């Protein structure tokens, strides 16, 4: 599947990181980089360096790619997930900047000891969770088949998520990802493993361990694609060290 333009891939990064790459990765003189006064000029300069380094790849990912396969899920768990996903009543999209047909996050409400939800926000969260409890249970069972010890706090569920390079800025740990559906070639979860390497992670009917704090997106595809991400936003933090982990 195709990749978003390099400009879009680099968009989630801070300008300071873009400047650092010009100097440290591509060897551009630091004084020259300082003369680039705005973010747009820095982005254009970095894309030009990629085009010089990888002229045959600039129209694709803009840098070399490798392929990684997740750990296959048992077929019965895939089937159970698909049943729940196809039956999902989707709320209004919670992250409108991301390109997807539907998108929602779901987390088990955190309660005080012996206390029922009291605020309107807590009651709404409880109601949403109860509405999608069967989906939550199916996703919990799927993850437990590969890593029963991962302490996630939420899941993100999407339908036909495409492109949308981003960084999960609220994550405090690595995450797990899977995708399910009748989509064919493409639909890989693409992760920037380094400034000069993209890993195309095949998550179809599989679980892959990756770190959403690295830039990532979904390559092009045709058909229907559901995805589930298990992630952690509070509790004990895990340092960000590796973009994609071995299965």
What does this structure look like?
There is one protein chain. With 247 residues, this protein is of the alpha+beta class. Helices cover 29% and strands 22% of the residues. Strand 7 and strand 8 form a beta hairpin. The longest helix has 15 residues, at 39-53. The two termini are 22 Å apart. The mean pLDDT is 92.
Lay out the secondary structure.
Elements: H1 6-10, H2 15-24, H3 30-34, H4 39-53, E1 65-69, E2 71-72, H5 75-86, E3 102-107, H6 120-131, H7 133-144, E4 154-159, E5 163-166, E6 175-180, E7 189-194, E8 197-202, E9 206-210, E10 216-218, E11 226-231
Parallel strand pairs: 1-8
Antiparallel strand pairs: 2-9, 3-4, 4-11, 5-10, 6-9, 6-11, 7-8, 7-10
Helix pairs in contact: 2-4, 5-7
Quick rundown:
This protein has 247 residues and is an alpha+beta fold. The chain contains seven helices and eleven strands. Helix 2 packs parallel to helix 4 and helix 5 packs antiparallel against helix 7.
